[in-house]
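Memo to structure team: turn this sequence into structure tokens by end of day. - J.P.
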Amino acid sequence: MDKNLKERFKTLIRKEGFYIALFLCLCILVTIGTISYKMSNKNEVNKTEEINKELTLNSDNNEKTINEIPNAERVENVPNSGKENTDKTKTEKSTTVSTSNKVNFSNPLDGVESRKYSYPTPVKMNEGVFRTIRGVNLQAKIGTEVKAVADGVVELAENSGVEEGVVIEIKHANGLKTKYGNLDANLLVKKGDKVVAKQTIGKVGETAKVFSKDQFGEFLNLQVINANDEQVNPEKYFTLKDK
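Reply from structure team:
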């Protein structure tokens, strides 16, 4: 009986031992596979995290670069903008000075106003003959000294023809110009000269041939021209004597 049990047990052990060994091998394989899978997943996770980290760093760097470029442009542009604004302010200031500075005009000579301002209304010269005459005429003997009415720069000093004769044109700091006509040919200034108020620039002449001495007498023609090259009534700027 005992011998039979022993034989059966041995047979069972031999028969089942194979399956137990196989089971153990399978368990070992599964365990090894599981461990390998977990390690592989861990490596993949780590690799993914590293890739994500690199992408994040690159993204941050790109964002930083993108953000820095406009800032750099602003930094470069700000001084230029300031310079432009400064230049613009200077230009505006210069323009304001040139057109709004108040300049006191003194009379170019001591003489009465022999012809009033009429421009652009035509003036009768002879029967059926009319002319538009610029400025006003100041009665003065030929040879009377003519003085600059204010500081300025001579822009014209020439014989302009039979209507105005020899003329001098001076530009002043307020943008206005004064023009002196019917002068003697021997001028004391030339184009480009700087003059000061009450400086003698020439003498009354008889070079405006259109206006005869018999009809208009001896005179200085005085004109005022604004910054737009338009004629202005000199009576607005001078205290002139009436006849």
